[in-house]
Amino acid sequence: MRALVVEDDHDLNRQLASALREAGYAVDTAFDGEEGHFLGDSEPYDAVVLDIGLPKLDGLSVLERWRRAGRTMPVLILTARDRWSDKVAGIDAGADDYVAKPFHIEEVLARLRALVRRAGGHATNELVCGPVSLDTRAGKVTVSGQPVKLTSHEYRLLAYLMHHRGRIVSRSEIIEHLYDQDFDRDSNTIEVFIGRLRKKLASDVIETVRGLGYRLADPA
User: Fold this and answer.
1) Cα separation of 24 and 74, whole Å?
2) What architecture does CATH give domain 126-216?
3) What's the CATH fold of domain 2-119?
4) How confident is the model at residue 119 (pLDDT cuts 50, 70, 90)?
5) Residue 31 burial (CB count, 10 A)
6) Which of 23, 60, 77, 158 fits a 20 to 30 Å CA distance from 131?
7) Which residues bind DNA (predicted)?
8) pLDDT of 80-118, one tens digit each?
9) How far is CA 107 from CA 75, 129, 206, in A?
10) Which residues touch 112 (CB under 8 Å, ≥6 apart)?
11) Over 90: is that where the pLDDT of 121 sits?
12) How far is it, in rounded angstroms, from Cα 100 to Cα 83?
């Protein structure tokens, strides 16, 4: 899963990005509205954290431009606690949720989990496919109730497949959602990660659809 953080406060930006990476996201960052708009308009994200008070281009304008261009990724806006009008304007501009400053990082993570979950049509934090279960809140994976240890990239790949269970996902789509902007992307590594996941999960839930990509499906 891949996220974008657009926040001009460098310390807060780093804190959010670090927390998201620890939670299993690939993260890109921007420190002004113009850069944030460009990234959100040109890269596919599973979620965006967007501050309203940005230099060069304010957050509401960024959000409105994304929505007019048909960008549908979930967006969580950051607002000032005493500006209720910003919250209303943000929702009207197309935001999916908001958090008022100052806030706890855990709240941002929880709200993002909910947004990503709803975007994928899932009702709970536990994603299940056959014997495989992934708890997005705890960041844990089990197979038939037994814990399985995954690397960060393996977890990110499985999480993306679990959120899109039953749909064929191409290698290029996986690459776009598995790595951040600066990562040296290589499509061959996807096959390596898929192979490792299959061994660790000891299950045939990951199907190869020849010429198209991969699909997560219940073996039953």
Assistant:
1) 17
2) Orthogonal Bundle (1.10)
3) Rossmann fold (3.40.50)
4) confident
5) 18
6) 23
7) 124-218
8) 866 788 888 888 999 999 999 989 999 999 999 999 988
9) 15, 27, 32
10) 3, 20, 47, 49, 74, 76
11) no
12) 9
Pairing relationship of beta strands 146-148 and 47-51 according to DSSP bridges: unpaired
How far is Cα 140 from Cα 21, in angstroms, rounded to an integer? 15
Q: DSSP states of 79-139 as a string?
A: EETT-HHHHHHHHHHT-SEEEEES--HHHHHHHHHHHHHHHTT-SSSEEEETTEEEETTTT
What pLDDT does 17 receive? 97
Look at residue 85 in the predicted model and tell me its pLDDT. 82
Asked if omega into 102 is within 30° of 0 (cis), the reply is yes
From CA 53, how far away is CA 33, in angstroms rounded?
A: 9
Element of type H or E holding 217: none
Q: Are 55 and 33 in contact (CB under 8 A)?
A: yes
If you average pLDDT over residues 175-196, what whole number do you get?
A: 79
**How many CA atoms lie within 13 Å of 147's alpha carbon, on the beta-carbon side?**
4
Q: What residues does each domain of the chain span?
A: 2-119, 126-216
Tokens found for residue 32: 């002004």
Query: Which candidate, 100, 77, 71, 81, places its Cα nearest to that of 90?
Result: 77
- By three-state DSSP, how is residue 172 classified? helix
What are residue 89's phi and psi, to 5 degrees? -65, -35
Query: Taking the CB of residue 7, how many other CB atoms lie within 10 A of it?
Result: 24
